[in-house]
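dumping this here before i forget
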Amino acid sequence: MNRSYFSRLFRRDVGISPKKFLLRLRINEACQLLQTTQLSINQISEKVGFSNPSVFGHSFTELIHETPSAYRKRRSFNNIQEQHSLEWQQINDILGHLSAVQQST
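structure:
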């Protein structure tokens, strides 16, 4: 299959070029790694297929609208908030049960 023919078919069926699709796939994987690992940004850059960390940083920022380090910081802060929110909900549930037991005795 001819490269330009493939690209044309891909764009028609997917809505973006194969190059943009691959970039989005790599950046999406990078987002997952930034949230779930302690790998350095350079390691993540390499792991998702970028040979130059600067190009990775520029591509990430262009697509996500924040730097990889800002993304990691924001997402880890949100995860901490979610964890504490769940803990407070559990505490409130326990207090609610205790209150119900005290009222029934």
